[in-house]
Design brief:
Elements: H1 10-17, E1 21-22, E2 27-29, E3 35-37, E4 39-40, E5 49-50, H2 51-60, H3 73-92, E6 100-105, H4 108-123, E7 129-133, H5 142-147, E8 150-154, H6 168-177, E9 182-188, H7 200-209, E10 213-217, E11 241-245, E12 256-261, H8 262-266, E13 278-281, E14 286-288, H9 303-319, H10 321-340, E15 345-347, E16 361-366, H11 371-382, E17 384-385, E18 387-389, H12 394-409, H13 419-424, E19 427-431, H14 438-459, E20 462-464, E21 470-472, H15 479-482, H16 485-494
Parallel strand pairs: 4-17, 7-8, 7-9, 9-10, 10-11
Antiparallel strand pairs: 1-5, 2-3, 6-12, 11-12, 13-14, 15-16, 16-19, 18-19, 20-21
């Protein structure tokens, strides 16, 4: 290994790893019969795997063992690596280890938010209300509906100006009106639909002013923006719990992460019980550990996944999140400018990054074309992978599309599951990662120009299948022939 003094950092490291992701060189055949490189613009759903993190995690597997007991070499190595993973993530998000703990959950951000919703409910048994925003992903909406008696959705502001971040005046008004009833506020740091960034420190100060805790959904922010949870000189700006997903942080196969204040967790018995989180178990009672993170990690965790994620975090931190954010802003600005030059495209949310900061995502529609058709054309003709529909954020999408949908359907009802409504009620989303390049943006804009000019002709080759998706009648790809598990096993056994 090289000496620390010679390690690459900043832009030099970014340049080195930008192309070192699994899947960047994947080839697929287009409608025209050409095999071209897939342009991956679906990072908000799941990012690609950072190859060095996968490689280092694979090296670790030579030493893999369960943790805790350390009287053989592998157990000692595994325990040390797993402990390092927790500490590395705490450092990355600026969480004081004396005040906060980090623990891993099995189903990404969803598992962590469900867990902390139950914790915050039980920490404040006399408070039965949670406040969220209208812009939340279902993962930061449904858990609160499930675990709290009352959930209040705060609207966005600047709808007419396409700003569309949470309304701080309305948040404070709601907290004031519900004084003494609100256990916590839970807000996304970055919208998974528009990429619009919420002012988390301001939200924290308002929540704490009225005695509420703050949980932050960091699924779309941690991989793209500098994150800080603890402000010793400004305690009201601190975050009580932050949750994010490894699979959105360049480490598919890794767990979800919760960073939370220890005092809140110590106030109640852990949500999950089992091996590893107890000091002693007798026939009639058990004694829960006071030590973290063991107390919150019952059972055998995803040790390799956690180590791979922390390795990715180590690399991101060496680049510097400010550097990474600035580089991604260049890509975002180019994409927004290119879309602005195409009159048929409507982008949702403000397009001036100075007035309306964004991270990673741009959602849009092309006039006169269903979102599913646009996504299919981008894939089939241009090998550009984007996502469409409502992105598990129905209330926010409804809010932004209300005028357009009302013109087409009259009264807007997202409970309307008619096929025609579902083909109209949605958007196309292009989302970027640190591996996204200006070439990717140029190819996207070129493809969108082609589609807006020739969409009517392209659409003649499509029909709607039983799943209400657009499919090209002459372009039938056998994805099982490209990859299937049984075939891969057969090939391995034959070699």
């Amino acid at each position: 290994m090289g000496s620390p003094g010679k390690s690459l950092t900043g832009k030099a490291l970014l340049a080195k790893i930008r192309s070192d992701f699994m899947g960047l060189d994947t080839l697929y055949e287009t409608v025209n019969g050409e095999r071209t490189r897939r342009i991956y613009l679906d990072s908000t759903a799941s990012s690609l795997m950072l190859r060095p993190a996968a490689s280092i995690a694979a090296d670790f597997m030579k030493h893999y063992s369960n943790t805790h007991s350390k009287l053989h070499h592998s157990a000692h190595i595994s325990t040390a690596a797993y402990d390092w993973a927790h500490a590395r993530i705490l450092s990355f998000v600026g969480a004081d280890p004396e005040i906060y703990t980090c623990f891993f959950t099995g189903s990404g951000t969803t598992g962590g938010i469900n867990r902390m919703a139950r914790v915050f409910r039980d920490v404040h048994p006399g408070k039965d209300t949670a406040i969220i925003s209208i812009m939340e992903h279902h993962s930061n909406d449904l858990p609160h509906r499930k675990h709290m008696k009352n959930v209040i959705h705060v609207p966005v502001e600047g709808l007419k100006e396409d700003k569309m971040c949470i309304s701080l005046p309305q948040l404070e008004k709601t907290l004031r009106e519900e004084a003494g009833k609100v256990s916590y506020v839970s807000i996304t740091a970055v919208s998974n639909v528009t990429g619009i960034i919420n002012p988390i420190q301001d939200i924290a100060r308002i929540a704490h002013k009225y005695g509420a805790l703050l949980m932050v959904d960091g699924a779309q922010s941690v991989a793209h923006l500098p994150t800080k949870m603890f402000y010793p000189d400004d305690p009201d700006a601190c975050i009580d719990a932050l949750v994010f997903s490894g699979h959105k942080t360049y480490t598919p196969g890794s767990p979800g992460v919760v960073i939370a204040r220890k005092d809140h967790l110590l106030a109640i018995e852990p949500e999950e019980v089992g091996g590893g989180m107890v000091d002693r178990v007798l026939e009639d009672r058990y004694q829960v550990k006071d030590s973290f993170p063991d107390r919150e990690e019952a059972g055998t965790p995803n040790i390799p996944g956690a180590i791979a994620l922390a390795t990715t975090i180590e690399i991101l931190d060496r680049i510097g999140m400010q550097t990474l954010m600035e580089e991604e802003d260049i890509v975002m600005e180019a994409a927004l400018k290119g879309m602005a030059d195409i009159s048929e495209i409507h982008v949702y949310g403000g397009t001036d990054l100075d007035l309306c900061p964004r991270a990673a995502s741009i959602s849009f529609n092309i006039a006169g074309m269903d979102h599913g058709l646009v996504a299919a054309l981008l894939n089939d003709y241009f090998n550009i992978a984007v996502r469409n529909q409502c992105f598990c954020a129905h209330p926010y999408v409804k809010e932004m599309m209300s005028d357009d949908l009302e013109d087409k359907f009259g009264i807007i009802d997202f409970g309307n599951m008619s096929p025609e409504f579902m083909r109209k009620a949605g958007m196309v989303r292009a989302s970027f990662g640190l591996y996204s390049t200006m070439e990717d943006v140029e190819l996207l804009i070129s493809a969108l120009k082609d589609i807006t000019q020739n969409g009517e002709e392209y659409s003649k080759g499509y029909e709607i299948n039983a799943e209400n998706d657009y499919v090209n009648v002459s372009y039938q790809v056998d994805n099982q022939a490209i990859f299937n598990i049984v075939g891969a096993v057969d090939q391995y056994l034959e070699d």
